[in-house]
């Protein structure tokens, strides 16, 4: 397990209010000789102090996230405020923020050209959103109607994220967000590349079926 992966796990355990001793014991049990020494775990836990709660709060509800990723990994994740929905102007601004994130995290990719894929949600196809995509210089990969199975997030990333979260209990939304970060940070480039490459196979099936619905 890489250093950043271990750090992400320790951060998650801290949010679950586990003691340094218990975190170290869990890592030793899981990783054996590859586990970091107690002193390292103690140092890492000091960077992630356990949040103190002064009153009982309700458990986490649904958390809506917008995830932008490529074959190298996660580029940007944004969470909507509870009760909010993605409107056209918000999505257009997201596209602009995505361009800045690519500029920071994928040096040279903007000059090389960005192939951008989205589904046919109304907010995605609105004129304001399409203008924002054109403004950023992204090349839009068209998405056939009624084909959620052609969105890599839907057929690859989200099902695996849901499987990771299944059975876990979260006290509030921040714990859900941290768990999502732990999952994403724990995946290597091969994981994300496999998801993007899966789109090619599905596109081929879609073309062979003259644009009809593709399930598998």
**Largest sheet properties:** 2 strands, antiparallel
Shape: elongated
Tally of structural domains: 2
How many helices? 10
Give the percentage of residues in beta strands. 5-15%
- Structural class, by secondary structure, is mainly alpha
Largest beta sheet: strand ordering: 1-2
Number of strands: 4
Mean pLDDT across the residues is 85
The CATH superfamily of the largest domain is Ribonuclease H-like superfamily/Ribonuclease H
Distance between the termini: 32 Å
Radius of gyration (CA) equals 20 Å
CATH top level label of the largest domain = Alpha Beta
Low-confidence stretches: none
Based on the coordinates given, report the CATH architecture of the largest domain. Answer: 2-Layer Sandwich
Q: Helicity range of the residues?
A: 40-55%
SSE string: HHHEEHHEHHEHHH
CATH topology assignment of the largest domain: Nucleotidyltransferase, domain 5
GO molecular function: nucleic acid binding
Protein name: Mos1 transposase HTH domain-containing protein
What does this structure look like?
The chain is mostly helical and 216 residues long. It has 2 domains: 3-47, Arc Repressor Mutant, subunit A (Orthogonal Bundle), CATH 1.10.10; 64-209, Nucleotidyltransferase, domain 5. Helix content is 55%, strand content 9%. It contains 10 helices and 4 strands. It has helices at residues 3-15, 20-31, 38-47, 88-105, 109-112, 122-125, 127-136, 152-165, 173-185, 189-208, and strands spanning 65-70, 73-79, 115-117, 139-141. The protein has a two-stranded antiparallel ribbon with strand order 1-2. Helix 4 packs parallel to helix 7 (127-136) and helix 8 packs across helix 10 (189-208). The model has no long low-confidence stretch (mean pLDDT 85).
């Amino acid at each position: 397990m890489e250093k950043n992966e271990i750090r992400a796990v320790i951060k998650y355990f801290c949010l679950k209010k586990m003691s340094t001793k218990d975190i170290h014991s869990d890592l030793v049990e899981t990783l054996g000789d590859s586990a970091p020494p107690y002193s390292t775990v103690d140092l890492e836990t000091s960077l992630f102090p356990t949040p103190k709660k002064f009153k009982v709060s309700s458990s986490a509800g649904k958390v809506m996230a917008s995830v932008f990723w490529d074959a190298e990994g996660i580029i940007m994740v944004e969470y909507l405020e509870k009760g909010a929905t993605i409107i056209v102007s918000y999505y257009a601004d997201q596209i602009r923020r995505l361009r800045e994130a690519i500029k920071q995290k994928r040096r040279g990719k903007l000059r090389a050209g960005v192939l951008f894929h989205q589904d046919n949600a109304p907010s995605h196809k609105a004129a304001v959103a399409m203008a924002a995509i054109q403004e950023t210089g992204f090349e839009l990969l068209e998405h056939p109607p009624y084909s959620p199975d052609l969105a890599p997030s839907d057929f690859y990333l989200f099902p695996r994220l849901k499987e990771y979260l299944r059975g876990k209990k979260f006290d509030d939304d921040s714990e859900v967000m941290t768990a999502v970060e732990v999952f994403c940070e724990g995946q290597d480039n091969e994981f994300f590349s496999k998801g993007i490459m899966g789109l090619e196979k599905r596109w081929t099936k879609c073309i062979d079926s003259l644009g009809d619905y593709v399930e598998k």
